[in-house]
Amino acid sequence: MWMSSEPKETAAIPSRSTSPTASTVQSVRGGFETLSISLLSLTKAAIGVELAGRAVDAPCCAKAVRISIAMKHLRIGLFLFDCIDPLRLQETVARIAAEVASEIEEIVIVDDRLQADSALLAIPEVRGLRAPRDLGYGGARKAAFEYASARGFDHVIVLNGDGSHPPELIGSFLAAIERSPHALIVATRQKLSRIDRLEAFLHSRILGIRIRDPRSGYRAYPVSALGCVPYQLCARDRSFDDQILVQFRALDAEICEVESAETWGDDRAGSPSTTSGIVASLDYRLHQLHFSRRHRYMVDEGVHYKLKLSPTGSHTQIVEAINSGSQVLDLGCSQGLLARPLAEKGVQVTGVDLGAETGAELVSELTAYYSRDLDLPLELPVARDFDYVVVADVIEHVRNRSQLLRNARRYLKSGGRLIISTPNIAIWVYRLSLLVGRFEYGPRGVLDETHVHLYTGATFRREVENAGFEILDQRVTALPFEVVFESTGRSRAVGLLAGFYHAVARAWPSMFAYQYILEARITTFDEDA
Fold first, then answer.
1. Which of 139, 286, 287, 529 is paired with 171 by a 20 to 30 Å CA distance?
2. Is 448 contained in some domain?
3. Which residues of 341-364 are buried (b: 16+ CB within 10 A; e: fewer)?
4. What is the pLDDT of residues 167-190, one digit of tens each?
């Protein structure tokens, strides 16, 4: 809530030359140049390409994949890397089946060695993207993603242009894109080494990524998802593939695979470590636990707030504190997270937040919903009708905190209760962070980048009391282990860990409490609040 989005700066991409012989050199964003030389559509070009006086036909194994009408609305960019030999590049392009080629809007060679008169460009419908210097394996892919975003592509398929990645598999990629348009798709080699199988097993155990070949660099990326991950912060070397895979895992995006009948060399060859994928996975888990902070794993999930089912978390404790059959006003309700579990208790919930006017994402269990700015005096077409006013993890987001609490008093019954929660900035994790000179905001958690005020237990209680409330009860929460371990909140092992931590937090809340939950009643009862 209270989130704003600024349009990303994009550069105008020049249109292609209409001359079939004249080449052009035009600048694009990031210091790159595009070089184009051909205007013949790949769908009209013969799949046989003349090479050194002989015709090379597309192999008979190039499978024609039937593409549905839905694919016609998607813009697919095919990006070729490691294109040193023009003959091999021509062979690679020639192996693309005609029906598959017709679905590709543009083929782009990404290389810092390209020249306007390069023989690599003498292929129908091939465009060159030249870097001013060698950006490395990861840097070249970053440049391709930036170009694809500026061009408005929907998906990016990346493969080696030397033929080591079988282009016959592009049809399978397109079919997978049609089935799962928001997924990262990875090609799986037929034969995998012991190291490959071990890494796949560890990826599954550490991150829950269940694909057979996480080391494969032959992939298709949805551009919409690329806009939600900071891929520019990934490495320039071949560990880029490992880190962006973890980014998609952090985004909770779907990751699927297409099976290849062929085997090619290790796409990780030349990387700093053959275990760089495992290092990235462990690094991400440490980031989740706040033992380290990695900005490259701070992804934009859109909706930050999800219902947490753990009995030691704030959502469950707030729901348990509300009596059945009550009337609840939820200030800062997001999409109505608490309305569903409260409805099971016969509770009627009225939600207030500064959200979309359409309410398209609101849960159906909300009795009513009002779009309001909680920094301003709250005017609602209701009276003091509510047994409870809930302000769950909201006060840290607003600048006019006293106004928010006056809004809560204004609609409470005389015997009503305020239930309010906020994170604890003095938890041990951030004490240690300050000792090592680290205090970094992120997309969620205690240091959520939308937080404008941070509380300790003492300052939180004082804030509520100064607003005319008497505190009746204080609860605390454990660290969100279910988020760290992607648990449903009902895992026995995670539950035992959370339960033990919760007991410690109750004994020493200022050091170990992740959040405080206060229940209070009005001491200053006035009609205007």
1. 139
2. yes
3. bbbeeebbbbbbbbbeeebeebbe
4. 999 999 999 999 999 999 999 998
What is the H or E stretch that residue 76 is in? strand 76-81
Strands 219-222 and 155-160: antiparallel
Based on the domain organization, do 76 and 205 belong to the same domain?
yes
Q: What is the C-alpha to C-alpha distance for residues 132 and 139, in angstroms, rounded to an integer?
A: 12
Q: Do residues 261 and 318 share a domain?
A: no
Answer yes or no: are the C-beta atoms of 529 and 490 closer than 8 Å.
no
Residue 187 domain boundaries: 38-109+135-267+274-297
- The DSSP 8-state label assigned to residue 448 in this structure reads B
Q: Say if residue 392 is in the same domain as residue 290.
A: no
The reply to whether 130 falls in a domain is no
Q: In this structure, what token pair is assigned to residue 303?
A: 């909706």
The two tokens of residue 76 are 């697919």
Residues 367 and 222 in one domain: no
Asked if 129 contacts 143 with a C-beta cutoff of 8 angstroms, the reply is: yes
Q: What is the DSSP letter of 16?
A: P
Are 244 and 276 a contacting pair, CB within 8 Å?
A: no
| Residue 346 neighbours by CB under 8 Å, 6+ apart | 324, 325
Report phi then psi at 319, rounded to 5. -60, -40
What's the number of domains the chain is made of? 2
CA–CA dist 261, 392 (Å, integer): 53
What six digits make up the tokens of 136? 């490395």
Q: Is 213 in contact with 188 (CB distance < 8 Å)? A: yes
Cβ pair 181, 74 in contact under 8 A: yes
By DSSP bridging, strand 469-476 and strand 515-522 are: antiparallel
Record the pTM: 0.65
Q: How far is CA 25 from CA 77, 124, 127, in A?
A: 20, 17, 11
Name the nearest CA neighbour of 36 among 18, 54, 10, 63: 18
Gyration radius (Cα) of the chain, Å: 28
